[in-house]
Amino acid sequence: MNNKKNETYKQKRRTKNLKYKTLKTLNRFWIKIQFWKPTKYQELLGFRESDTKLYDIACIHSSMSQRDRKGRLLNNERLEFLGDAVLEAVMSEMLYKYYPNQKEGFLSSTRALFVRRKTTNELGEKMGLRKYAVVRRGNNNNFSNITGNLFEALIGAIYLDKGYDVAANFIMRSYKQHINMDKLLRKEKNYKSLLLEWCQKERKEFYYELVEETRIEDNKIRFQSRVVIENQSMGLGIGNSKRESEQAAAKQALQALKN
Length: 259
Hints:
By secondary structure, this protein is mostly helical.
């Protein structure tokens, strides 16, 4: 009788151990599946993000702002602010190393060309960022800066999630894949510099004047500037920054001077 009980007990132990080993094996297999399963933003980023919530916030346009449990407003504007600073730092370092013999003026104007909203919008569109944007229905096509803003917000999220080096690699990889930087440099003319050279050669006095600042879509500001040569308004320009508007005004002034 005792032998029979012992045999039954051993059989139960063997069954229990087998179940335990089976569950342990399945658990390991499940962990491996989860590890190899792509994360939500992995295809876009080129790496596995750690804090997916950060990237979710980076995709929320201000038109779809939410509030967390503490009542704080959640949208991508704060991450965009951070990403803009990181983008400028990365570009500054890249240009400093790439052009060892160029002066500060060239480096500043070239950096402005690469980080301006027109360039980041083009980059964001080519990366397909519009499909990630959480934006109020009807606004997706109206707000031209959505993709540029989202690109900078993603940089801010990467910086917080993975650090500066990973953010820098993401920036340089994105520009290399989608923006022909050498072609952009050759194509873009610095009209302000050309106008400065002309005025110095002709001994003409000139200055730029901010005419108007207008708040437009996406809580951004549009600038309107004019250039005055010898007390005569020679060009009027509009842009998403003061510098862009002055560039446009200088271009118009140069065209007028040719005529």
